[in-house]
Specification:
By secondary structure, this protein is an alpha/beta fold. The chain has a single domain, classed as Rossmann fold (3-Layer(aba) Sandwich). Helix content is 28%, strand content 29%. The protein contains seven helices and twelve strands. A hairpin with a 2-residue loop joins strand 7 and strand 8. The longest helix has 21 residues. The protein is globular.
């Protein structure tokens, strides 16, 4: 049966709707300082170094290591608390500052989220025992059908949402460790590589689904050869010769390929290059530039009025063009 393809062109939005607070009739580009970014990777891959390079950023340094990173942005503050209650006080203060229009920091980083989940687990265990006469060793093992983990997940999601809706960007790091499993496929055992995280699957899926960018961090050595000029004197005559020198630099690479991510994620802007190489110290400025360029590319496509295949629908032909129905055989 043939189908007609027509553009889904609707009526213009009336101005009375556009003028109401909260209306977003045009293409809205999230600013870099209000993005939700997830950086996952192995320990030592450069995640903390990246979030410490964010201007006017605050890093919740769960592992008590980010504060010692050399080359951090001078406007970036690292905060270490011994429990989730301390970070709760910081979050309360940040939200209060935003409500009073006294917000100083732009981006809040949980570095790493795995450790924050552990802190919350301990905090909720203590609170469950206070004044209740209960003797709960671990809130995660309390209750039926994962009721304890539900409490932990709800608490973490609420804190992240409070910060985001108060106007802060979120740069969350997640420690992942590579694992190798053997699974049965037919009559053979097949080796499969995957990733393990100390965070609960529910939290991992939540931050991945609610972010604009999810990228994996990798650390590698970049080797190059440079020409070095050397000046020397022979019998009073000054001469110059060129020698080859091998230079080794440690670099970080951020991969944005959705196939690399351990959990499917939403990519709001397509990057021309799914990989970004950033220096040993810093890197957020390079990421910011890539985001800005990608957003501009999307704007240009919208302005040019290029056809969008996703804006078309398939419609059945009119009754005059339809084929007659076959009569059922007796």
């Amino acid at each position: 049966m043939e189908h007609e393809v027509t553009d889904m062109t609707g009526k213009p939005i009336p101005s009375r709707y556009k003028s109401i607070a909260g209306a977003q009739p045009d293409f809205v580009v999230p600013e870099v300082r209000h993005l939700r970014v997830v950086i996952h990777g192995a320990v030592g891959s450069g995640k903390s170094t990246l979030v410490r390079s964010i201007p006017n950023g605050i890093v919740f340094d769960m592992d008590h290591k980010a504060g010692a990173i050399v080359g951090a942005d001078p406007t970036n503050l690292a905060v270490y608390c011994e429990d989730a209650g301390g970070y709760e006080s910081w979050i309360d203060q940040l939200v209060e500052d935003a409500q009073r229009n006294k917000k100083f920091f732009d981006v809040v980083s949980f570095d790493p989220l795995n450790r924050y989940v552990d802190f919350v687990r301990d905090l909720l265990t203590v609170r469950a025992n206070e004044g209740s006469g209960k003797n709960i060793d671990d809130i995660a093992r309390w209750g039926k059908e994962g009721a304890g983990w539900d409490r932990i997940n709800t608490y973490v999601k609420r804190q992240l949402s409070r910060l985001y809706f108060a106007g802060y960007g979120l740069a969350t790091t997640i420690h992942l460790t590579e694992r190798v499993d053997k699974i049965q496929k037919g009559n053979d055992l097949v080796t499969v590589k995957g990733w393990d995280s100390a965070s609960t699957p529910a939290i991992l899926k939540f931050v991945m689904a609610e972010c604009e960018y999810a990228c994996s961090a990798h650390r590698f050595d970049e080797v190059s050869t440079e020409d070095v000029e050397q000046t020397y004197t022979v019998r009073g005559v000054e001469r110059t010769r060129t020698n080859k020198k091998t230079v080794r630099r440690t670099r970080f690479m951020l991969q944005f390929d959705p196939a690399v991510a351990p959990v499917a994620t939403r990519m709001q802007f397509p990057l021309e290059d799914p990989e970004l190489t950033v220096p040993l110290r810093g890197g957020w400025d390079i990421f910011s530039e890539a985001h800005t360029n990608a957003a501009e590319a999307v704007r240009e496509v919208i302005k040019s009025g290029a056809p969008n295949e996703s804006m078309k629908k398939t419609r059945r032909p009119s009754s005059s063009k339809r084929r007659p129905l076959r009569k059922k055989s007796k």
